[in-house]
Amino acid sequence: MAQVLQIDEGDAQEEMYARNWTDGLPVVPPTPDRVDAMLAGAGLNATDAIGEIKERARVLTAEKAAINAVMAGCLPEYFPVVVAALRAMLTPAFNAHTALTSTGGAASCLVVSGPYADEIGMRSRLNVLGPGNRANMTIGRSVRLVAANVFGARTGEMDGSSIGHPGKLSMCLAEYDPPAPWEPLRVELGFDRSETTVTIMATEGPRQVANHLNPDPAGVLLTFAAAMRNPATYCVGKGSQGLVILGYEHSQILHQAGWSKQRIREFLVEESRITADELARWGILKEKGSQHDLGETHDGKLPAIATVDDLFVVTAGGAGAGWSSYIPVWAPTLHNRSVTVAVELPGGSAPVVDEAKIAAVVAALAPGLRSDGADLTAKVTGRRAIEFTLDIPSQACADCVMPVRMLQPIFAREVGRILGSGWTLKINDPRDEAGHPLNASRS
Amino acid sequence: MAIEVLSPSYEGGSAEAVAYAPRRTFAAGDALHLVLIENGKPKAKQLLQFVGEEVRKRLPVATIETHSKPSAGRPIDADTAKMFAARAHLVISGLGD
Q1: Best interface-test mutation with A: which of B1, B3, B4, B6 has the largest number of A CBs within 10 A?
Q2: Where along chain A do the CATH 3.30.300.130 domains lie?
Q3: What is this model's ipTM?
């Protein structure tokens, strides 16, 4: 159990500075009652192990994680997200031993995807990478305080950052669910839509991508590619992972033009490749006989992103003139990979069910369907996840009921109005089922 | 007024000491095997090989073996360490950019 210290309340900040517990900003004193409340927020015991860095022979307990989360300013309901982020950070593929140490000065960038982000008030729209949101800022800060206080990732000890960047203080954003048929990050990575996940990436600072005038999807993406293949970025020519944050206007242009997220990834990975001559033009020499020697490629081009699966594309940010962001991972994939972990909530992912409200949603939506001879049922399938099923009894009716892509925004609006934000919804349509009698003679 | 706070720092004690491999003994005239472990950074191999040749001028080194780590960000695994401990009289490594 953690050492208990008596300090004078009036001198608490100075005392914590003197003990080198802070990141340079004031912290909340981690009193036992605050730490207990934090642990309760995730349903953890003080001695529960979160993970370890084997190379440093250090294990992180839930208590130490909770102490640092208190100091960062977290509310207890944020703690399940902090714990998921720390579990991700301590997964061997992330290689925290190096990611927290390197001269490259990587941040621990967190992408939170799923309904719990909304539930705790995380920001996914305006100023998504900027200051002002308590959940975003303090969740990201907690991870860095753990890195410093538990694993020694601070200047003068294990953090060898030559320059570093402001994201090392806190770098945490929420994704908003993109419009169908695009899937959110968690679903693309194989998690259930009703889950909430945290993806950790060890990143350089974000590059803002501005393109305000071009309505052409390829034109917009070429601007991203220009940011991604910048020779000054360490991994360009070596192959790393990367994060594309599609801002509102850019995502609209791409979505409305019918581009899939996979097509976006493929385009960007291809267009961000660069020749050794281009790198040399800007003073960068190709490594030979070292760990990053890629040899010769079929067309002489070298990758910025290792493979199509190594580029993550999320929707976040608010409407404006046409802004997005690209965030490169600081090291090639042979050293470090992003890791995604599901948030575990106390009590599991038991559905939050208010039957009266669910009935109210159906009552609001069903009349429009009944006028076309169809009907609707709904059930809660997960924590803040609802699944609708259309009942279409005849073929005549099948032709008049609106398709799911048109129903989706109507259903989403009513779900938001009656149940509140943060719900994910799915609509089952028998017309989409292969072999269903309704489809037997429909063209 | 005094308040109680909990320490956020690691308190699990020092990392367990790692046992050194047993020292290989050798007699005058023995041919020594030197292993260089380079971390994969640019020119690390050349730097260590230069050091190896300088050692050869001063000790009866018969053979020099260079091992290149696939990633500077990860240590060699236990099996590789055991192998070099068994066959080398002397190992030289280093870190840095």
Answers
A1: B6
A2: 355-439
A3: 0.84
Q: Which residues of chain A have a CB within 8 Å of the CB of B15?
A: 56-58
> How many alpha carbons fall within 13 Å on the CB side of residue A98?
21
CA distance A403 to A259: 20
How many Cβ atoms are within 10 Å of B23's Cβ, its own excluded? Answer: 7
Residue A111 pLDDT more than 70? yes
Contact B11/A12, CB-based, under 8 Å?
no
Cβ neighbours for B27, distance < 8 A, ≥ 6 positions apart: none
- pLDDT of A436: 64
Burial of A1 (0-12, 13-18, 19+ CB in 10 A): exposed
Which structure tokens are listed for A227?
């940011």
Tally Cβ neighbours within 10 Å of residue A348.
9
Give the type of residue at A181: P
Specify whether the CB–CB gap between B48 and A107 falls below 8 A: no
- The gap from C-alpha A292 to its chain's centroid, in whole angstroms, comes to 28
**B73 shares contact with chain A (CB less than 8 Å):** yes
Residues 3-42 of B with CB under 8 A from A: 3-12, 15-16, 39-42
d(C-alpha A53, C-alpha A159), whole Å: 15
What residues have CB less than 8 Å from A18, skipping those under 6 apart? none
| B44: nearest CA partner in chain A | A290
What is the Cα–Cα distance from A173 to A122, expressed in whole angstroms? Answer: 8
Q: Each residue of B3-12: pLDDT tens digit? A: 999 999 999 8
Q: pTM for the whole thing?
A: 0.82
- Residue A291 identity: Q
Return d(Cα A260, Cα A241) in angstroms, integer: 19
For A295-330, the pLDDT digits (tens) are 777 888 999 999 999 999 999 999 999 999 999 999
Q: What is the pLDDT of residue A443?
A: 41
Q: Which architecture, in CATH terms, is A355-439?
A: 2-Layer Sandwich (3.30)
